[in-house]
Amino acid sequence: MATVTDPPTREVRMGRLERLPWRRVILIVLAVFIVGTVSIGALRTLTLPEGQRYSADAWRDFVVLGIAQGAIYALIALGYTLVYGILRMINFAHGEVFMLGAFAAYFFVDAYAATGFLDRHPLPALGILLVVAMAASVGVAVLLERVAYRPLRGAPRLVPLITAIGASLFLQNTARGFFGAQTRGFRKPEILQGSWTILGSEMPRIRVVVFLTAALAVVVLTLFISRTKTGKSMRAVAEDAEIASLMGIKVDRVVVTTFAIGGLLAGIAAVLFALTFEGVNFSMGFRPGIAAFTAAVLGGIGSISGAALGGLSLGLLQAIGPSLILTGYHIPSPFQLKDAFTFLVLVLVLIFRPGGILGTGEAEKV
Amino acid sequence: MGPVPLRSAIGGGLIGAVVSIYLALVGLTERFSDLELVGEQVTLGRVLLVLPPFVAAYVVTRPRVVAGVRRVPTPAHGAVAGAATGLVSIGAFAAAIVFAEWFDVNRVRQVFIAASPTLIEFVTFERGLAAGIVLLIALGLVSGVAGGVIRNASPQLRSPLVLGIAATLLMGLLQRIIPVAMRELGVEPDFLYEPSGGLTLAGGIGVFVIAVVASALWTRSGPAARERARSTVREQPATRTALLVVLLALLGILPLLVGAVISEVLGTVMVFILLGLGLNIVVGYAGLLDLGYVAFFAFGAYALGLLSGATLNTSAGAAAPAFSANLNFYIAVIVVVILAAGLGLLIGAPVLRLRGDYLAIVTLGLGEIVSILTQSRWLAPLVGGPQGMRGITDAEIAGYSFRAPQHFYYLALAFVILAIFVSWRLSSSRVGRAWNAMREDEQVADAMGISTTRYKLLAFAMGGAVGSLGGALFAVKIGSLTPASFEILVSITALAVVILGGLGSIPGVVVGALVLIGLPGLLREFEEYRLLIYGGVLVAIMVLRPQGLVPNVRRMRELQEDEVTQDAWANPKTEGETEETYAAVVAGGRLGAEPEEEIDE
Amino acid sequence: MSDGTHLLELRNVAKHFGGLYALSGLDMHVNPGEIVSVIGPNGAGKSTMFNVVTGLYEPDDGAVFYRGESLVGLAPNQITRLGVARTFQTVHLFPNMTVLENAMVGQHCRTKSGVFGAVFRPPSTLREEERIRQRAKEALEFFGSRLAGYRQEQPANALSYANRRRLEMARAIATDPTLIMLDEPTAGMNPTETLELRDHIVRMRDQLGFTVLVIEHDMRVVKGVSDRVIALDYGRKIAEGTYDEVANNPQVVEAYLGTKAAG
Which site among A9, B89, B369, B560 is 20 to 30 Å from A277 CA-CA? Predict the structure, then answer.
């Protein structure tokens, strides 16, 4: 039988310094600093002398740009949020699902551009574009799931994440190898060029179309998730995969469906993006992918409305934020820093409100 | 075909065909079409043509469980099944080639830029379509048969043969190092290597035979002898010290052996070993997936530049940075490392409470922020913007400059040895134990008195310090800095190095760096496909061998366990029977599978 | 047994998850040198109470005092350092660390060598490491030969179930606590092991000088070790006293068996 040799230390007391809620203190200081910096910056930007200030038109353009961009982010973000809800993993390669859909659409456009098909029958042509992109994206997404993610279903969380990163790299560079490093031009059909006059201002047609398409997609998706049997299964598996399978739901099939839906939405986003920026390139999925993920977290990951809200918010933040805040501090070329701004937003959201705007996320350890 | 189902052969063959087509379309096949490995005929491109049928056949002809009984195919079975698989594999590929030719290669090229007449020529061995395709199919068939036969040859034959093939190919790939080293040692390599190419035919055969024989002897000697050999190395301090001395001596004379060009590559390898060691502390020891490691690398490089008197590149010539000091390299380096540790605390602080995936994304974001800032106009007065800095110190001591590749190697080696020492000491200490516990079960570690906050911050600080050392060294090596060197690619490369080598394993980091940096460095043809290979490697390792090439024994057990048991307690929603019963059942279920089940006395 | 000042005291503690109140208005205390058992049906809040005391949850209301100091808001590692150790309902060892290393982790909060010590290994660090090993071994040897010898170098998940439970207790013992909290220590054990563990619990008090708070379902153990028994249901205390008093309390019987049985 063992006996205790040294008397154990038992008179430990907790010092006053240790009791301080350090984390809360630091957070409060940080919050004050940020609010201060932002407000002061914004104020200074808005009160700049006449020649340096942004005009009302410029702001309006920013807003329109932000909303349209945000709509695209929302579509991609939905893919992230759906997969995260089901598998609790970030599908790092979702940006590449998006990119490959864009390429598929490009090749179709390229094939028919010469014949003018795009311009003569824009609506069916765009429809086919969407179908082609969606098919490609869905194909890639499903293949990804099958080859890279399913074998790792039960593994420690680090493993699927690294696999996803690897898959993302692999797909990006496969596209580079297949299609070359040059950006391929994607011509807008005539019907989408120019602008419409809405509410008294000129809005680029493409941006309006982007927004409407995305909004429609979100509505359809919400209805699908809430009304159909498949949607219910998806929600069940997202809640508790174990119990769902005990209830007779084929979890594997639900997972594939989720990836497929994510792919579908990414395909739509791909066409919209390519039409907006008139180009496709093998690396086009990376930054939008991260931005979309930021959007999903911003809104509250795991929730559809969160992704939509997050997408719009991020789009607006990206479009308005750097110009509004940084110009006040005379920082040159604020728009150059828009991506840095996005990442900063992500970091701040995860520090202050990891659940996102809607509070549904679960980024923190319990 | 014995126990091998036809379905499987066809399926395997089709997958092989897909791989072949992929390799061709992504450009690898053609890119390596000129890289001679053995003689003039065996080029890497051709190897890539016959490899898919071989591998497919090898996998398809594996032993199978038929009606509850494990059946091993005979070599004859293997030959037939391999033939079938190989035929499907190469046949489908050949069909694709013919189709492309019929459809007009140049139209295919509008989509897949690698599809070209040159590719077709290569694939048909420059003998025209008909003869070429026949030859191709024949080779594929033979390859498939070989795969099937080797797979099911007696175990004593199998490993040696596979190793022999691998060794020959590897020696062929090392064609830029070994002949150079041999010449330095005064040995003419003509018998082994062609003047500017791979192994000579005789050399190739020789290597193959030697590898096979050596491997066969090793296998033959029986497990007991092997275990004896291994334990002598592991346990006898005398043998260990002797090996260590030999290793150090070898490292010491290496630059003289391999010449300047390769020393330069080795220098880069060293820089990435440093990065890998640092990241290994964060990811491998503490279990924190940091995807923004480039931040420390960039910080180390630029900070060193600023502290040691470098100047900014501007269109008007050199300019002084907004802040700079003119310290001696060795003092500057210490300051940089300390500051980087501080940066590590700054980067670690926001991510303390985040779960794995979020941690990864946030650190990625932070890394990207640093990356963006290095090229921004805003910070250009400090770090030079897109044009960067120049005039970095060459770490001179008593007139001896370290800029030349062969000299830089020694500087880098010193720092690498230091970093290895520190890493090793950390891992086998109280700190390392705390990291292990934290990594295995964070909440329980916290409950057991380990301040997870402190140890996470410590990991980031130490990791940052080592990473910045890598950056500082890099700056000295190149002498000037541009933002192009500080992109996310660096973070991913460092991660790939650590993962490939094995999380938490110091030798693993070295091996990982050698493979992922050394090989592409030596063979320029790989340069273009580096990222593709990294991505493929990451996926393959995670799916096939998550513990890496040189695993840390402890991690091997860890990465193969089911994650469910770890998390079952950490996410209690309500107290209830389902939660605990499930976890207990899982625990019980796993116990049932334990081979070391003991009976309590 | 009570000398007037409680070692651990909970006052009006409440904790809810969403709409579900796991604990509400919980008052209880433990005096130095006592062995107190906490019983109650599943879902009564017993483990939640443990989690609140040890800092894994923050209470939504009420106060928790240990030696007169409030524990609310402290991190679990701080609470452990104050002298409160615990085991878990489902065993949570560090599966890939060896048995000895698991126990050595327990000593972490009583030692302090850091990076400097790790890298330079001065004599003070070496002494401390030796001391850690020593105390860990002592903690393991509390369970006799079961966790001794070659077993100490085996990975923790190679142990049998009962030995894992013992290891978890040894790890808690290695933190040199004053109060040790055991969550269903005998769950899953066979009768022999259960009785053996019952004796271990008493020895923890008699030999090691700990105060023990145990959550238990097995009434033989509860009867055999407890100075006092506290019964919980729906997150509040429904009975308190000696084993016999509590076992015959009609509210307790009803909680376990339903109304008819109580009548």
Answer: B369
User: Domain containing C140: what range?
Assistant: 100-176
Beta bridge mates, C17: C20
Residue C205 and residue C249 in one domain: yes
Tens digits of residue pLDDT in C78-133: 999 999 999 998 899 998 899 999 999 999 999 989 999 999 999 999 999 999 99
Same domain, C47 and C162: no
Last residue of a domain, one of B153, B174, B209: B153
What domains sit in chain A, N to C, each tagged with a CATH number? 59-352 (1.10.3470)
ipTM value: 0.92
Question: C34 and C1 share a domain?
Answer: yes
Tell me which residue has tokens 């390799």: B23
Kindly state whether residues C115 and C182 are assigned to the same domain.
no
Mutate to test the interface with C, among A1, A3, A4 (most CBs of C within 10 A): A4
Whole-number Å distance between alpha carbons of B304 and B332? 6
Query: A-B interface: how many C-beta pairs under 8 angstroms?
Result: 176
Contact B60, B78 (CB under 8 A): no
Please tell me the distance from the alpha carbon of residue B122 to that of residue A274, in angstroms, as a whole number. Answer: 36
Give the single-character DSSP code of B471: H
For residues C155 and C128, membership in a common domain is answered with yes
Q: Which amino acid is at B198?
A: G
Q: Report the candidate in A276, A272, A290, A312 with the shortest Cα–Cα distance to residue A96.
A: A290
> DSSP label at A300?
-
> Is residue B578 one of the residues assigned to a domain?
no
Interval A238-264: pLDDT, tens: 888 888 989 888 899 999 999 999 999
Residue A16 has pLDDT above 70, yes or no: no
| pLDDT tens digits, B5-36 | 888 889 999 999 999 999 999 989 888 888 88
Of C20, C75, C93, the CB nearest to B446: C75
Q: List CB contacts (< 8 A) between A10 and chain C.
A: 83, 176, 178
- Judged by CB atoms closer than 8 Å, whether chains meet at A169 and B534 is answered as yes
Question: How far is residue B198's CA from residue B213's CA, in Å, rounded to a whole number?
Answer: 22
| B354-387 residue pLDDT tens | 877 888 888 998 999 999 999 888 888 888 888 8
Query: Do both B294 and B426 map to the same domain?
Result: yes
Cβ neighbours of A152 in B, within 8 Å: 542-543
- Lowest-pLDDT choice from A110-124, C14-28, C201-215: A110-124
Look at residue A220 and tell me whether its pLDDT is greater than 90.
yes
Domain final residue pick, B153, B168, B183: B153
What are the backbone angles phi and psi of residue C31, rounded to the nearest 5°?
-95, 155
On chain C, the residues whose CB falls within 8 A of the CB of B447 are: 54-56, 76-77, 80, 86
Write out the residue range of the structural domain in which residue B88 sits.
1-153
CB neighbours of B394 closer than 8 A, spacing ≥ 6? B329, B401, B402, B403, B476, B479
* Same domain flag for C187 and C78: yes
User: Would strands B64-66 and B69-71 be described as parallel, antiparallel, or unpaired?
Assistant: antiparallel
Residue B243 lies in a domain: no
Contacts 24+ apart (CB under 8 A), B417-422: B419/B273, B419/B274, B419/B277, B419/B278, B419/B466, B419/B469, B420/B277, B420/B506, B421/C119, B422/B462, B422/B466, B422/C119
- Cα(C158)–Cα(C251) distance, rounded to whole angstroms? 43
Q: How many domains does chain B have?
A: 2
For chain C, what is the domain count?
2
**Is there a single domain that holds both residue C14 and residue C137?**
no
Which DSSP helix (H) or strand (E) runs through C25? strand C20-30
d(CA A71, CA B587): 46
Give residue B597's pLDDT band: very low, low, confident or very high (50, 70, 90).
very low
Residues C198 and C69 reside in one and the same domain: yes
Give the pLDDT confidence score for residue A5 in this predicted structure: 43
Look over chain C and give the mean of its residue pLDDT values, rounded to a whole number: 90
- Whether residue B111 is contained in a domain is answered as yes
Tell me, yes or no, if the pTM score tops 0.90: no
